[in-house]
Design a protein that fits this description.
The chain is an all-alpha fold. The protein has 15 helices and no strands.
């Protein structure tokens, strides 16, 4: 099955999805169209609500129509969302921005967990994690290319050029999605809807949600507060672009690292990964020394993403162990809803502790990562066969 580790259309789709040329100036897309900061935050909150509302319905649809069709549908919704964002920018109409948020929320909900479920169904256990990392690297490569090209596009064509280029890349991503291989057919099993709903309330799945939320929260801190740390160190925020490109390139080592890890060592690597991330975040929060902070900035995303890829397989194995493989997309949607709720709680808590400095959020999250890593190892080593 080695030859199946090269699904060109899937990799092309991931690369095109990473080409979001307006990403560095996404706020300007809204404010230059006449939206106030208050309206911008209302839009973001509305988008989060849309994702929460559509998670389970789209998960149910995915389990019925199949993963490939859902990936195509998701790409189509993303293209429509990009077109609506462009129209919103040109019109400056807040109502159009709201419609775009609805479509984007549906697109995110359809794509949420679908790629993971598709890859898990297509590949053997020893291939899944590496293939997942490769797809992630294709998206990262797209992001790097768009970040490099962004400056030239913005200089010569303005925000309009960035939007048009992103629409084109989304259209190419949709075209590539049609060529994705259809997933294997699973044998039908008798599983009740009641069992799926009950799944969300047990300790095991609460642990899964917390682990996924820890990963998501870490990337929130990286994406929003790295620049704050640079400013506290007296380093110009212009260096943030170099930091982003640096950790994006380093992050692409993940595929090579995962190839070196035996499948039997996945759960142990997950625990050690979370412990490492926890220590790095604690040191990052406490240190004000450039020679300590900058290396952590560059290495932290890689340290997070390796156990994240491994845990993707672990949560799918838990779904199998519970006899819910035919409801995989719906179960993954339930997990993602829980992650959204934990993120909301974290953001409100961070708003409170931010009075003591954002470093405290890094320290507390780092401590949580270490504890959760050990607890997850103990819990899931009894549940799945490694």
């Amino acid at each position: 099955m080695k030859n199946k580790l090269h699904i060109d259309n899937l990799e092309i789709m991931a690369f095109m999805d990473g080409l979001v040329f307006f990403s560095p100036v996404s706020l300007l897309i809204r404010t230059k169209a006449g939206l106030s900061l208050e309206q911008f935050f209302v839009l973001q909150a509305f988008l989060s609500i849309m994702i929460f509302v559509f998670e389970i319905p789209t998960g149910k649809i995915t389990d019925r129509v199949g993963y490939k069709k859902t990936l195509v549908l998701s790409q189509g919704m993303w293209l429509l969302a990009r077109i609506l964002l462009m129209l919103s920018f040109f019109s400056g109409n807040f109502a159009v921005f709201m419609i775009e948020a609805v479509v984007e929320g549906i697109a995110i909900s359809f794509s949420s967990g679908t790629l993971s479920a598709y890859l898990y169904q297509q590949y053997e256990s020893d291939e899944y994690v590496v293939k997942n990392a490769r797809i992630g690297n294709c998206g990262t490569a797209g992001f790097i290319v768009s970040a490099i090209i962004y400056a030239g596009l913005y200089h010569f064509f303005g925000l309009e050029g960035l939007l048009v280029a992103t629409v084109i890349s989304s259209a190419l991503g949709l075209v590539a999605s049609f060529g994705i291989e259809k997933e294997k057919h699973l044998k039908e099993k008798e599983v009740t809807e009641k069992k799926v709903k009950k799944l969300a309330f047990n300790l095991e799945n609460t642990m899964i949600v917390v682990i996924l939320a820890c990963v998501s929260i870490t990337f929130i801190l990286i994406n929003f507060f790295y620049v704050d740390k640079l400013e506290n160190l007296g380093i110009s925020e212009e260096w943030m672009s170099a930091i982003i490109l640096g950790y994006s390139l380093i992050q692409m080592i993940s595929e090579k690292l995962l190839k070196m890890i035996s499948e039997k060592k996945y759960l142990l690597t997950f625990m050690l990964g979370f412990l490492t991330v926890g220590m790095m975040m604690i040191v990052f929060g406490m240190s004000d020394h450039v020679l300590i902070v900058i290396p952590i900035m560059l290495l932290l995303p890689l340290a997070v993403i390796v156990p994240e890829y491994i845990f993707d397989e672990i949560e799918n194995k838990v779904i199998d162990a519970n006899g819910l493989e035919n409801y995989r997309a719906e179960v993954l949607s339930i997990y993602n809803m829980g992650v959204n709720l934990v993120e909301i709680i974290f953001l409100f808590a961070s708003a409170y502790v931010s009075r003591a400095g954002i470093s405290l959020s890094f320290i507390l999250t780092g401590c949580t990562m270490g504890v959760i890593g050990v607890a997850g190892f103990v819990m899931f080593s009894k549940k799945i066969d490694q």
